[in-house]
Design brief:
The protein is α/β, with parallel strands linked by helices. The protein has a single domain, classed as Rossmann fold (3-Layer(aba) Sandwich). The protein has a seven-stranded parallel β-sheet with strand order 3-2-1-4-5-6-7, sandwiched between helices. Helix 2 links the parallel strand 2 and strand 3. Helix 1 crosses helix 9 and helix 4 runs parallel beside helix 6. The protein is globular and about 50 Å long.
Amino acid sequence: MDLKLKDKVIIVTGGSKGIGKGICKILAAEGAFPVIIGRNRESIPEAIKEIEAAGGKAGFAYAELTSNKECQFAVADVIKKYGSIDGLVNNAGVNDGVGLESGDYEGFMESLKRNVVHYYLMAHYALPELKKTKGAIVNIGSKTSFTGQGGTSGYAAANGARNSLTREWAVELLPHKIRVNTVIVAECFTPLYKKWISTFENWEEKLDEITQHIPLGNRMTEAQEIASTVAFLLSEVSSHTTGQHIFVDGGYTHLDRSI
């Protein structure tokens, strides 16, 4: 199926690692031009080289996403260098473990900045270009906003906000024919996930315990599976889909899951 993404300029925040990198690779394979935005000056060039080695093309703009000004400058840089914005994937974030009992005001506010404020900022600054191109926005979310996890109030609250913003923006942007959807992720073995699970003493046993609760195949979701859904939602093929929370999780969130 032709997703009609050829030469589309699509911003992907946090696109140099994990799920974001998988999204960029799929987009490039479809002929799109993913633009990675993030702060890592080592992993971003490496990701672009990998995409180019596979025959694709990609761009970048550096930004500390917790900074309003840097988000604004990054979007301006994308427009200056690449001419337009056809899509936005808000992906960057971290499950930072700011809990209710263990956290504090400063940590909670920083968690919101790390995990949802830049979703708003990137969409706000990209909107004038998205209105011109009738582009699409895809927000990456987490099952923590539906299931809870414990010990991660900031991240869970941020993901609840991502879900709400998806519905809010889908309504507000109807007159501009800009579609907005969320892809909800549960268990995907990214570098950040590996870092988290490695904190357990018997982490391999913990991983086996988790995968046994994933109904479809008793396995982790692969980044490519999430990325393929994102590409579909960015494309004209999904032209009548907006305001949706789409779960790519092997049924983990809803099919008789137990904590």
